C-alpha cells in the first residue's frame, strides 16, 4: 500500500510505483507541488517529527516502511528566517546570562546537573548553526562576506564550532574545570557577540527579498 502523503496538512496524490525510498518521495513532491522558493520547515514520517540533523540520514528509508509522510512548508523562507532570528536573539540573551552560573556548578562539584544543562546548550548551538545555514541559503551569500567589529561572521562561526568541539572533548574526559572555563571565558562572550550581530543578519535576509 502506498504511503499517505500530506503537504501542509492536505493529502496530495503522487505515483509512488517507481520510488524506492523517502528521498524519492521528497524529490517528487518538491518537483510537482513546491513554489520556486518554497522550503520545508517540518517533516513527519510515520507521524514522528524528523529532527533537522537527521533528514539526510533517513532519506534511504524503504518505501515499504513508510505509512505516512507530511511536509510543512513556507513559501517565503526569508520571512521565516527573520522570525527564527528574533527568537534566537531571545534565546542567546538568556544563554549569556546563565552561562556563568552553569560554569560555577562544574567548578563546585555538581557536574550532573550542569551536564544536563550543557547538553541542552550544545543542542541550542547546533540549532543556531543550522539557522546560519538558512541565512546563507536565503541571502545567497557566505557569512565571510559580512563583518562586525573588524571580524567576519564566518570567522566567528569557525570559533563557535571550535569551542563546541573542545567542550564536547572535555565533557567526555570529565575535565570539568576546562568545560567551565570554556563556557565562561570563551563561549559566553562569543554568544553575546552573536546576539549583537542578529540585527545585521536580519537586515541581510530582508534585503534579499
Overall morphology: globular
In N-to-C order, the SSE pattern is EEHEEEHHEEHH
Largest sheet at a glance? Answer: 5 strands, mixed
Provide the residue-averaged pLDDT.
89
Per CATH, the class of the largest domain reads Mainly Alpha
Textual characterization of the structure:
59% of the residues lie in helices and 13% in strands. It has 209 residues and is of the alpha+beta class. The chain has 2 domains: 4-74, Roll (Ubiquitin-like (UB roll)); 77-207, Four Helix Bundle (Hemerythrin (Met), subunit A) (Up-down Bundle), CATH 1.20.120. A 5-stranded mixed beta sheet has the order 2-1-5-3-4, with no helix packed on it. A two-stranded antiparallel ribbon has the order 6-7. Helix 2 packs antiparallel against helix 5 and helix 4 (153-172) packs antiparallel against helix 5 (176-207). The mean pLDDT is 89.
Tell me the layout of helices and strands.
Layout: E1 4-7, E2 10-12, H1 22-33, E3 39-45, E4 48-49, E5 68-74, H2 77-107, H3 111-139, E6 147-148, E7 151-152, H4 153-172, H5 176-207
Parallel strand pairs: 1-5
Antiparallel strand pairs: 1-2, 3-4, 3-5, 6-7
Please provide a brief summary of the model.
By secondary structure, the chain is an alpha+beta fold. The chain has helices at 22-33, 77-107, 111-139, 153-172, 176-207; strands at residues 4-7, 10-12, 39-45, 48-49, 68-74, 147-148, 151-152. It has 2 domains: 4-74, Ubiquitin-like (UB roll) (Roll); 77-207, Four Helix Bundle (Hemerythrin (Met), subunit A) (Up-down Bundle), CATH 1.20.120.
Amino acid at each position: 500500500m502506498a504511503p499517505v502523503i500530506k503537504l501542509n496538512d492536505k493529502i496530495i496524490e503522487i505515483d509512488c510505483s517507481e520510488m524506492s525510498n523517502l528521498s524519492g518521495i521528497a524529490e517528487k513532491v518538491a518537483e510537482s507541488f513546491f513554489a520556486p522558493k518554497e522550503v520545508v520547515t517540518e517533516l513527519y514520517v510515520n507521524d514522528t517529527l524528523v529532527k533537522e540533523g537527521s533528514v539526510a540520514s533517513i532519506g534511504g528509508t524503504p518505501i515499504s516502511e513508510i505509512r505516512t509522510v507530511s511536509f510543512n512548508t513556507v513559501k517565503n523562507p526569508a520571512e521565516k528566517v527573520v522570525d527564527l532570528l528574533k527568537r534566537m536573539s531571545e534565546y542567546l540573551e538568556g544563554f549569556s546570562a546563565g552561562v556563568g552560573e552553569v560554569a560555577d556548578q562544574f567548578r563546585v562539584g555538581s557536574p550532573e546537573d550542569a551536564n544536563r544543562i550543557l547538553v541542552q546548550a550544545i543542542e541550542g548551538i547546533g540549532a543556531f548553526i543550522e539557522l546560519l545555514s538558512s541565512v546563507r541559503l536565503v541571502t545567497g551569500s557566505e557569512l565571510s562576506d559580512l563583518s562586525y567589529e573588524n571580524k567576519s561572521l564566518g570567522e566567528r562561526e569557525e570559533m563557535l564550532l571550535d569551542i563546541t568541539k573542545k567542550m564536547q572533548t572535555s565533557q567526555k574526559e570529565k575535565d570539568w574545570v576546562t568545560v567551565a572555563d570554556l563556557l565562561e571565558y570563551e563561549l559566553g562572550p562569543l554568544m553575546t557577540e552573536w546576539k549583537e550581530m542578529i540585527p545585521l543578519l536580519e537586515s541581510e535576509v530582508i534585503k534579499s527579498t
